[in-house]
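User: I've been trying to design a sequence by hand for this structure and keep getting stuck. Would you show me what you'd pick, starting by listing the structure so we're on the same page?

Assistant: Good idea, let's start from the same input. This is the structure you sent:
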């Protein structure tokens, strides 16, 4: 008996059998997804920067309140971590800010 020394043709991976058009589409899809990820990252960074500025403004406004003690300052910082409350605080007239803080902290 003779052994057939001819090799079986090796199977090519499915990816190499795909038409070039599909490969180009895949590359475009990857590029699009990468671009979308970049846009999302920039939006998140922009929001974080906006929140940092809001917090800085709120703390500056807190420190501008005359005769504010350390305990009230720290409690107010905790309260103003809430973005909506921080915006409300900053929108108030300077004369009302202390009263608003005390009312919110009593609740």
């Amino acid at each position: 008996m003779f052994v057939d020394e001819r090799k079986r043709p090796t199977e090519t991976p499915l990816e190499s059998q795909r038409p070039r058009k599909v490969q180009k589409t895949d590359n475009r899809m990857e590029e699009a997804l990468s671009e979308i990820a970049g846009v999302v990252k920039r939006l998140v960074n922009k929001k974080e920067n906006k929140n940092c500025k809001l917090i800085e403004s709120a703390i500056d406004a807190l420190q501008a309140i005359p005769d504010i003690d350390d305990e009230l300052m720290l409690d107010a910082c905790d309260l103003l971590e809430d973005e909506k409350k921080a915006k409300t605080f900053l929108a108030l007239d300077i004369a009302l800010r202390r009263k608003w803080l005390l009312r919110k902290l009593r609740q």
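That's my pick for every position. To get oriented when you compare it with your attempt: The chain has a mean pLDDT of 80. Residues 68 and 77 are 12 Å apart (CA to CA).
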